[in-house]
Please model this.
Amino acid sequence: MPIAASAGIGSLSAVDRVLASAQYISEHSTDVSVPLQGVERAAARILKRMQSVGYSTASWKQHALTPSLATASAIEWIFTVDALNFSFWSTQSAAAGSAQYAVTYDGVAYRGYWSLCAAVNRALAEGIAITDAAYWCRASDSELAHVFRSDPGREPMPMLQERLAVLREAGQVLVRGYGGRFANLLAGARGSARRLVDTVVAEFACFRDEHQFQGQPVAMYKRAQIL
Model:
């Protein structure tokens, strides 16, 4: 579905915007290319691996940090984590890699994406309502910074202020339009992942990662699709 330079992407659904953007970038890139045969081989390997290990939501629930039950609280946990799931690169030099942001929970030190999950679970265990949109709106920056604190001797969470801004914005949207619960927005999608992505992109600027490429607006929507 090529994008005409004058048409833009605004009239397409969110998922179609991503596909059309990917095609436009692929057709107009001059410095980077992705061989189609390589994509097909990678897809075949991933599919084979998923079939051999039986990956599903059931296996996702087996991780020590992810919710094990499909409850209303699990829905809010997933939205919280996906809203903040970006940029865990260390701000330290490679030589100081041991100082990378880390969170210890239940005796295990986690890094990267899992450090975020560990921080959220730690806060819940401490009685902090970190998955509650209303809490995001009323908590101070220092309270939220405490939730995402790093282990002693480790660097602070990368892009902490940007993450706090995401929570503020998302909290205001949910409180204002969805009774403070992402589950209410999810119900409005009526079982359609495509409809859900459309709603999330439309409602939350923090999920609307759009850019310009050679004068053409292009859409990524990475975290919206993960969500």
Notes: The longest strand covers residues 102-105. Residues 1-7 have pLDDT under 50 and may be disordered.
